[in-house]
Amino acid sequence: MSRLVEQFERLPGIGRKSAQRLAYYVLQLPQKEAEEFAQAITEAHAKIHYCKVCCNLTDQDLCPVCRNEARDKTVICVVEDPRDVMALERTHEFKATYHVLHGAISPLGGVGPEQLCIKELLDRIQAGGVQEVIMATNPTVEGEATAMYISRLLKPLGVKVTRLAYGIPVGGDLEYADEVTLTRALEGRSEM
Amino acid sequence: MSRLVEQFERLPGIGRKSAQRLAYYVLQLPQKEAEEFAQAITEAHAKIHYCKVCCNLTDQDLCPVCRNEARDKTVICVVEDPRDVMALERTHEFKATYHVLHGAISPLGGVGPEQLCIKELLDRIQAGGVQEVIMATNPTVEGEATAMYISRLLKPLGVKVTRLAYGIPVGGDLEYADEVTLTRALEGRSEM
Q: Which residues of chain A have pLDDT under 50?
């Protein structure tokens, strides 16, 4: 029992009490469901790996976006995390492809460029056909540094590098926007 | 006592219980402090009025921004609310002037253009010397409609009309950005 609790406790956002609650829940599951649960974990680990092209997670050679003939392969949107791909897919507006870095450069966190899927991105661009790379790393210090680093690598390859717009979020309130965001929104103003 | 409670209850965000708590607090104040409180309310009403130029609140003819010789008078930033002026002033980056509309056009809320300080804005621009008007109304449906409405009035006057950038707020996380904001951030991307 304590081994099971310990396993649950390792999950992010789960403390000792929650882990115990989850462990008791799993114990009282019917044998069949518990086995399905265990199997789902093992199978996910065995089958899910990086997409050969964009490094997103997939259980096939290529992820659904890279497999899709209708997607515009001349534009690559670079994100830190597979969850960012999901966020961008939810907009239903982005019809091109992604590249997942699996992190951001963080000297304090001990993450250097070689630990990210940057080489794979360079390979894609050197293979030709890419016109624009949109840097969609997070609007944080690390995300910004990663975007700058990759942008410097890409520019000599003759590809257009763009960055997501900073500004006020839609539906928000100016009064509650932070100073840096307001400054960026003023700098980035466009003619109506 | 119940009259005092009723008065407090009219304040935004104050319910019956809070109003009672505040009323009791005021009652137990020393006579002098209670009088100062009452006087502050009366005086504010008597002395504070709209700035003659920008319609911001002030106790003089002109507000501190309009009085300041160093501010760039050729650019006007149009906001809905005096609190938005405070938010923009906190950035310490904006060195031009403001115009406070005191609301946004809202057909459902019964607010039409004639209830806002739009005439005063047109007067300022017709007086000459203004090169750019930055529409900094809130990124909501009402704010957007107000920006569009004013922009249509201003364009025939030959003045440049711009809008604050929409996009991801600085320091945020792509994963938690809503779909509309992400779409705007993608549309508004700029070359690095």
A: none
